[in-house]
């Protein structure tokens, strides 16, 4: 046998051994995971049980996905999720809204480990994704479609769940392309002799590129800092305690408007604390969770200080039971208390102060009609301090035809009014309305998953949603009211993927319509988007693997306000490339965003970055 064949035999033997070792390691990644083995986080969807959870549809963005994409903030990580459109008013750190399946930006509920964290000091209740950088997040879960029966109010269009968890790969990294544009992060985990697992993550980000305003002359600077702590203690094989501390601060130069560069200097802080106790046996799972978070936001506008502050406490208990081989069910309750206030000074005056209490009870049940059929029902009732008692539900039927899985659901959702919509005032005469009803929705959805072959899969989702009792200012701009102008949304999402051990290629598309019942199109809702993702691992016999990640997305034309009228905005074609190469436990990465340097505004009048070339070095310490 020649030397070349000897090397190849040794290489493939090591490969087989490593794959076998990985399989054994994954086997250890069960619920207790006392071994501290790096693995994908397994997150339970609230208000589900053993069989009903099989019908849940969610997109999971793992830590590996985040690293492979070269993502710096949440927008980077989520921009390729089919059915989601991201609009950021400028470059990193600027205000960002997402539109899930063409719905309103405040119809997507944002959660931290399953607990809602939308800021109640925001006038319309939307979450600003531009403040969330990614280094301390272990996983992102995206739920599309009405999910009120699982997560509660505001999940009309869907939910985004940020997962914090212990990362067992100790490392530090530095990335960027100059001294003003960089990211630093560190991860460290310690396992003690008495089964305590401690993890601390820290990160700092700096961005200083072009002005947020299209054609602007100044640069807008952003600084972001993150610090988090996660701890887990096993009492025995069936019981564990978890605690999490998460904090972030984002300081950014904001422009005053789409034409005024003088703007604001913002200081946006968010802190969250969670503790939970979980008890698991073969046929039962019980979870008690306590949560607190607050937002502290300040905007300095040439001497005028705008202040926004809110806090929330949450207590939730849940239990699921597998009764027998056909029936499972679960039940629980959640109490949430929000209070907040803001004072907006300067040429625009607005203020509000108040609190909201909500007590939710929920239950679910699933019955296996046969080995290939499961029918599930999910119910939730929310007793709100002003809108009183309202319910949401989901009916789900799951059918398996061998390689074809059919999932049909009918669901409802709601969004309760915000503090500003209930109690707020401004100098234009708008006043709050304590008699508002919640916004509500009805959604029908069909999902098909077809394994065409061992390596080829097809996924299709068809949906139709009606949103009614929408909350907006009345025609006289004197107060908020429930309008009779409904929104109708419908669409089809497709993805076909070809995968093997070393590479994958997928193509996705989204055809959607979001229209008012008078036929008028919603702004910032493109009817068409499509794209492709390619991943490849090239084995190097001498040092380590080379990973190639290539992503492309086309966003079609849409209407938007250009400062004077609604106009048609051009389509965009964006390509990102990430290369990472391992050597002796270290990783070198090259990330090129907007590879072909496309010049575009999204939304209108706000510029986005051109081509960015980012280098990254990661040192693994395990």
Describe the structure.
With 622 residues, the chain is mainly beta. It has one domain: TonB-dependent receptor, beta-barrel domain (Maltoporin, Chain A, Beta Barrel). Helices cover 8% and strands 56% of the residues. The chain has five helices and 34 strands. The strands form five sheets. It has a 22-stranded antiparallel barrel. The protein has a five-stranded mixed β-sheet with strand order 1-6-7-4-5. The longest helix is centred in the first third of the chain and has 26 residues. The two termini are 37 Å apart. About 3% of the residues have low confidence.
Features:
622 residues, mainly beta, Maltoporin, Chain A, 22-stranded antiparallel β-barrel, 5-stranded mixed beta sheet, 34 strands
């Amino acid at each position: 046998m020649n030397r070349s064949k000897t090397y190849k035999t040794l290489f493939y033997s090591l490969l087989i051994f490593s794959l076998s070792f990985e399989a054994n390691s994954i086997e250890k990644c069960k619920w207790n995971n006392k071994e501290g083995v790096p693995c994908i986080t397994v997150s339970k969807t609230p208000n589900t049980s053993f069989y009903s959870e099989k019908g849940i549809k969610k997109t999971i963005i793992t830590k590996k996905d985040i690293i492979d994409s070269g993502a710096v903030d949440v927008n980077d990580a989520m921009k390729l999720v089919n059915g989601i459109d991201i609009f950021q008013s400028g470059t990193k750190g600027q205000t960002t809204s997402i539109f899930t399946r063409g719905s309103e930006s405040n119809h997507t509920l944002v959660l931290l480990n399953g607990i809602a964290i939308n800021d109640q000091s925001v006038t319309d209740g939307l979450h600003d994704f531009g403040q969330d950088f990614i280094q301390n997040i272990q996983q992102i879960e995206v739920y599309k479609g009405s999910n009120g029966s699982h997560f509660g109010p505001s999940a009309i269009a869907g939910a985004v769940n940020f997962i914090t968890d212990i990362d067992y790969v100790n490392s530090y990294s530095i990335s960027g392309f100059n001294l003003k544009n960089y990211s630093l992060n560190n991860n460290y985990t310690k396992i003690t002799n008495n089964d305590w697992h401690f993890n601390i993550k820290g990160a700092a980000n700096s961005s200083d590129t072009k002005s947020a305003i299209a054609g602007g002359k100044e640069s807008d600077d952003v600084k972001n800092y993150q610090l988090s702590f996660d701890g887990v203690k096993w009492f025995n094989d069936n019981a564990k305690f978890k605690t999490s501390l998460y904090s972030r601060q984002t300081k950014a130069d904001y422009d005053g408007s789409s034409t005024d560069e003088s703007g604001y200097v913002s200081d946006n802080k968010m802190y969250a604390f969670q503790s939970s106790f979980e008890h698991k046996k073969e046929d039962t799972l019980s979870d008690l969770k306590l949560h607190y978070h607050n937002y502290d936001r300040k905007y300095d506008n040439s001497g005028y200080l705008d202040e926004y502050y809110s806090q929330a406490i949450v207590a939730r208990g849940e239990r699921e039971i597998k009764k027998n081989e056909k029936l499972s069910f679960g039940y629980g309750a959640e109490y949430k208390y929000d209070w907040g206030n803001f004072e907006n000074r300067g040429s625009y005056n607005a203020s509000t102060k108040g609190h909201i209490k909500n007590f939710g009870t929920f239950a679910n049940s699933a019955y296996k009609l046969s080995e290939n059929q499961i029918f599930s029902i999910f119910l939730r009732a929310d007793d709100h301090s002003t809108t009183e008692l309202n319910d949401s539900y989901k009916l789900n039927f799951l059918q398996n035809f061998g390689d074809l899985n059919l999932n049909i659901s009918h669901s409802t959702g709601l969004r309760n009014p915000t503090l500003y919509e209930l109690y707020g005032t401004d100098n234009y005469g708008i006043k709050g309305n304590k008699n508002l009803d919640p916004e509500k929705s009805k959604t029908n959805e069909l999902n098909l998953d077809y394994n065409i072959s061992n390596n080829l899969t097809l996924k299709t989702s068809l949906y139709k949603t009606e949103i009614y009792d929408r909350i907006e200012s009345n025609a006289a701009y004197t107060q908020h009211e429930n309008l009779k102008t409904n929104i109708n949304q419908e669409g089809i999402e497709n993805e076909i993927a070809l995968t093997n051990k070393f590479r994958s290629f997928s193509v996705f598309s989204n055809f959607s319509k979001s229209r008012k019942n008078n036929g008028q199109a919603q702004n910032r809702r493109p009817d068409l988007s499509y794209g492709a993702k390619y991943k490849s691992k090239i084995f190097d016999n001498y040092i380590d693997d080379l990973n190639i990640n290539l992503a492309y997305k086309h966003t079609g034309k849409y209407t938007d306000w250009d400062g004077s009228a609604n106009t048609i905005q051009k389509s965009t074609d964006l390509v990102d490339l990430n290369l990472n190469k391992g050597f002796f436990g270290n990783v070198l990465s090259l990330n090129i965003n907007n590879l072909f340097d496309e010049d575009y505004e999204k939304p209108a009048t706000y510029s986005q970055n051109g081509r960015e070339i980012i280098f990254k070095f990661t040192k693994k310490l395990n």
